[in-house]
Write a structure and sequence with these properties.
The complex is a heterodimer of chains A (about 190) and B (about 750). Chain A has about 190 residues and is an alpha+beta fold. Chain A folds into two domains: about 10-125, Roll (Ubiquitin-like (UB roll)); about 130-190, DNA polymerase, domain 1, CATH 1.10.150. Chain A is built from nine helices and five strands. The longest helix of chain A has 13 residues, at about 150-160. Chain A is elongated, with a radius of gyration of 19 Å. Residues about 1-45 of chain A have low confidence and may be disordered. Chain B is α+β, with helices and mostly antiparallel strands and about 750 residues long. Chain B has 16 helices and 27 strands. Chain B has a seven-stranded mixed beta sheet, with helices on both faces. Chain B is globular and about 80 Å long. Residues about 1-50 of chain B have low confidence and may be disordered. The chains are: A alpha+beta (about 190), B alpha+beta (about 750). Chains A and B meet through helix 1, helix 4, helix 5, helix 6 and helix 7 of A and helix 5 and helix 15 of B. The structure holds FE2/S2 (inorganic) cluster (FES) (2 copies).
């Protein structure tokens, strides 16, 4: 697959599309941009806010035009960590669950600026070599079907485990939606944790 | 066996080589596996010729002994990629744990070569490819053995054994790994009529083996359609006219910060019902990232022309139309126009039923109503396209039908197939919706306009409101019983919008095959029977939804049977058992009854219901046990399910699929529906389309009827992916009757149920 990771900022991609270098995008003359893009200058005047996040142990600096951009899209589009999923965008499904300072949160509604100074852990950073006990239990019990909900499911489970919970206590905290209906195997997997 | 003449690669194709050509020539009329698919040369990297150790288009043997199989099914959670790998590995006699599986691309060659993408619909992957895969793999194995025979200068096949990817020359004790034989084997004429491994010696088929895709699905590395990232990519978010049938009045100007607003039309072949070819029914806003683009799309004020019939696109109207058609539909006329509202007699004759019932002691009659239901795949529709004008087009899609994507892209771009690459990504659920290509056509239109790689996403609200829904249906059953409880005459009529009709398929005398699934060829002793289907005129787009017509008809049939059992004063299980004429059905019914403790009383406060049905060549029965009925819900405690799919290739996957299908059926039976007000779909997100969460999961037991000792290839292998669905709703409804004395004749049980946030 020719897909390559884009880092930094979605506007970098836009700058390329518009035939501008990143430098040009940031410092080029307003008139130029307006002409070349046919887009009101105001658009590109939008203030980019730069935020530094600690994601999976590394500092990542991103620039957002809309400071209300939820963490989910910063992770997926700007940082390139696509393991965290979009399901509903309204805090009903849990597909977007990540850990923030160890606490499961729904990144689809989580203000990115509120994550500054906190430790964000996504499914990609949960363990080296897929070695978290929840991940191992999920493999042992062959839990995923389509798998799309499982990043969020596992992060919720990992959050509960980090809080010192086991077995049925964890189950009570796994409210994520699985359209494929893998709940029985999740129960079997969690019973070993 | 392919009989297609291989096409010649373009002369500029550097992958062409003499050895291959010789092989191709000698392979003409031989095995499919021997073919390149020159026009569609993106089978996978594996297919790049000249790789040492490539035995054929789908089998690559590495010098390190690794085996790479190219598998063409879409993986949406059903484990069929693994299932096919299992079948291939069995016949190849290789260690399944060492097999690497690669996703194959689509091919326009017919029949589809082994390794090329196949349609992943109708629970079909294993059931329709089982023998084909085995033949191909057996041929590859015997070709490798032939290479060993040549190497040892010994043409006595019985001097050679095969185990774990190693051919042993018994007289000399020489071990010849496939890796050493592959290059020579690739130059041989593929072995014809290669013997298959006898069932009694299966090491993989019939065994639960781990799925190959699962590790990547617990660490975030699995790439779904929505996860595709291409260098220089921009993001598009779709915004449809909220009203079905509406069209764009004027193109809005580009919002600040955005790159473009692209009106998208219904491309020929992708529109259903109200969505007529060339209607501009949506705009795509294009911008720098998903969030900003989505917000711009939300804020965008778009003027739409609404269809003149919008006021008629209402549930109440659809229902009253259906009820009218239950009695007034005009019979099909061969060669006639047969517009919507036509009555098709699919089996039997109404007259015979009427006369059979004249002596009935009791007539039982009931009407059942089923709603439109959304697919609501966990992953929204999306597609990524990189179009280089006049040169190439690369598509990444979570698709159940890569071949349809390929044909579409060729038609839209005018590019030759060789310039088009289709990547089938993991699907975050398919459920039938991702067999459609409307979303692909939109992404291609946007890419052709912006001339940059673009990822198009449908926000969840668009996914719910622009679905091609499971059709609604109104079903009327009427049957006569004699004084001993025998059924004298059975009449069944289903009024439902036509899935195939909306796809331009002319309906013959038997109507829409999809609409009548689960209602015909029932092995019940019905006496006289008539099964009818009426095309409902509603133009709301409909489509294939997990288990398709069986999801409607098994409900109608099995609720009706239960009503007859009650009228006859008989136990619903015994009543069915006495009427069934097919021993396989009886065995499945018995197995479910045993698993569900049918003959012992349920715990207090609980009640059980039973149902049986067949779809996609499998027979499934379920016993559903429920309790705790309130005005907003009930508790499903246990589901006991038995299946006969003839050859259970991977029992663990079958179990998972049935569990998933049961949850799918449960969500739909209790809560699932989409409603329309003046052509606008009302449920826009999961909060308005309740589904169960983990705490509500029933305990599910599965019994799989074992495969035969020696399989007969003339017997159809059954599917599993959709089979949990059809029998759940009637078994639930029958349990509800037992619990409350009230029949459930309309689904869902709890319409309008909502789902709270987390
Ligand atoms: S996407 Fe965040 S809860 Fe559904
Ligand atoms: S595994 Fe598909 S939604 Fe959970």
């Amino acid at each position: 697959m020719a897909a390559k990771m884009l880092v930094d900022c979605g506007y970098l991609a836009m700058a390329r599309v518009w035939g501008l270098t990143r430098r040009g995008y940031r410092s080029g003359s307003k008139d130029n941009r307006t002409q070349s893009l046919g887009i009101p200058a105001k658009a590109k005047e939008s203030n980019l806010t730069t935020l530094t996040l600690n994601v999976n142990g590394a500092n990542r600096t991103v620039s957002v035009s809309d400071p209300s951009m939820p963490l989910l899209w910063v992770l997926r589009d700007l940082i390139g960590l696509t393991g965290t999923k979009y399901g509903c965008g309204i805090e009903v499904c849990g597909a977007c669950t990540v850990l923030i300072d160890g606490q499961p949160e729904h990144s689809c509604v989580f203000d990115t600026s509120s994550a500054v100074g906190k430790k964000v852990v996504t499914i990609e950073g949960l363990s080296a070599n897929t070695s978290h006990p929840a991940q191992k239990a999920w493999i042992d019990h062959q839990v995923p079907q389509c798998g799309y909900c499982q990043s969020g499911m596992i992060m919720s489970c990992a959050g509960a485990m980090a809080a010192g919970h086991h077995g049925s206590e964890i189950l009570g905290e796994l409210q994520n939606l699985c359209v494929c209906g893998t709940y029985q195997r999740i129960k079997e997997a969690v019973s070993t944790l | 066996m392919a009989t297609t003449t291989p096409e010649v690669r373009p002369a500029t194709d550097t992958r062409q080589n003499v050895g291959r050509r010789g092989f191709l020539a000698s392979a003409a009329g031989g095995l499919t596996l021997a073919f390149f698919i020159p026009e569609v040369s993106r089978l996978s990297d594996v297919e790049a010729a000249g790789l040492p150790g490539q035995v054929n288009a789908w089998l690559q043997v590495g010098t390190d002994g690794s085996i790479t199989l190219t598998i063409g099914s879409s993986e949406m959670g059903q484990g069929s990629m693994s299932g096919l790998a299992q079948v291939l590995a069995e016949e190849l006699v290789v260690d399944y744990a060492k097999v690497k599986v690669v996703q194959g691309g689509p091919s326009l060659v017919n029949p589809v070569p082994v390794g090329a993408a196949i349609n992943t619909v109708g629970s079909s992957v294993i059931r329709t490819n089982f023998w084909k895969m085995r033949d191909a793999a057996a041929s590859a194995r015997e070709t490798l053995v032939q290479a060993a025979m040549n190497a040892k200068n010994d043409q006595t096949r019985s001097d050679f054994t095969v185990s774990n990817g190693v051919v042993t020359h018994v007289p000399s004790g020489t071990l010849l790994p496939y890796a050493q034989l592959a290059s020579a084997a690739a130059l041989l004429q593929p072995a014809a009529n290669a013997p298959l491994i006898p069932d009694s010696q299966f090491k993989l088929i019939g065994k639960t083996v781990p799925r190959v895709d699962i590790p990547s699905k617990v660490n975030g590395s699995a790439k779904y359609g929505l996860d595709v990232r291409v260098d220089g990519m921009v993001y598009a978010v779709i915004k449809h006219c909220p009203t079905f049938g509406g069209t764009l009045a004027s193109t809005p100007s580009v919002p600040s910060g955005m790159l473009a607003v692209v009106p998208t039309k219904v491309f020929a072949g992708t529109g259903r019902g109200t969505e007529v070819t060339d209607n501009v029914n949506a705009v795509a806003v294009v911008g720098p990232n998903t969030w900003d683009t989505w917000q711009a799309a939300k804020r965008l004020n778009v003027a739409w022309n609404l269809p003149s019939n919008a006021a008629n696109l209402n549930n109440a109207k659809f229902l009253s139309d259906a009820q009218t058609l239950l009695t007034t539909a005009t019979p099909f006329v061969a060669g006639g126009a047969n517009p919507a509202g036509t009555l098709y007699t699919v089996e039997g004759a109404a007259g015979n039923v009427t006369s059979a019932n004249t002596s009935a002691a009791k007539i039982v009659e009931a009407t059942y109503t089923l709603p439109y239901v959304s697919h609501a795949c966990m992953e929204v529709l999306n597609c990524t396209v990189n179009y280089v004008p006049g040169v190439s087009c690369e598509v990444w899609a979570p698709t159940q039908s890569a071949k349809a994507v390929l044909s579409l892209v060729i038609a839209m771009t005018g590019l030759p197939a060789s310039a088009v690459t289709v990547h089938t990504m993991y699907l975050g659920g398919g459920l039938g919706r991702k067999a459609e290509v409307d979303f692909v056509s939109q992404a291609v239109q946007v890419a052709m306009q912006v001339k940059k790689p673009v990822k198009l996403m449908w926000p969840r609200e668009e996914d719910f409101t622009r679905d091609q829904y499971r059709p609604m249906g109104v079903i009327h059953g009427k049957a006569g019983l004699d004084s001993s409880g025998n059924i004298l005459g059975w009449s069944y009529r289903n009024v439902s919008p036509s899935i195939l009709g909306q796809r331009g398929v002319p309906l013959g005398a038997a109507g829409d095959s999809q609409g009548i699934e689960g209602a015909v060829n029932l092995p019940y002793n019905f006496g006289a029977r008539v099964t009818e289907w009426v095309s409902h005129p509603s133009p709301i787009p409909v489509g294939f939804w997990r288990s398709v017509g069986a999801s409607l008809n098994t409900f109608g049939v099995e609720c009706m049977i239960d009503e007859l059992a009650f009228a006859a004063g008989q136990d619903p299980y015994q009543f069915r058992r006495a009427k069934l004429t097919d021993p396989r059905w009886i065995a499945v019914l018995d197995a479910a009854a045993v698993l569900g403790n049918w003959t012992s009383a349920p715990p207090s406060g609980r009640a059980r219901g039973i149902a049986i049905g067949a779809a996609f060549n499998s027979i499934v029965a379920e016993v559903v046990e429920i309790s705790n009925l309130t005005t907003t819900g009930l508790r499903v405690n246990r589901v006991s399910c038995a299946i006969d799919c003839y050859i259970p290739v991977n029992p663990g996957s079958i179990q998972a699929q049935l569990q998933g299908g049961i949850v799918h059926g449960l969500n739909a039976a209790l809560y699932g529906q989409q409603t329309f007000v003046s052509g606008v779909a009302q449920a826009k997100n999961f909060n308005k389309s309740r589904m169960i969460r983990l705490g509500e999961m029933p305990q599910i037991g599965i019994t799989i009827i074992p495969g035969p000792a020696a399989s007969d290839r003339s017997v159809n292998i059954g599917g599993a992916g959709e089979l949990g669905v059809p029998t759940f709703a009637p078994a639930l409804a029958n349990a509800y009757f037992k619990l409350t004395g009230k029949r459930v004749r309309s689904l869902p049980l709890f319409p309008g149920a909502t789902m709270g946030g987390l």
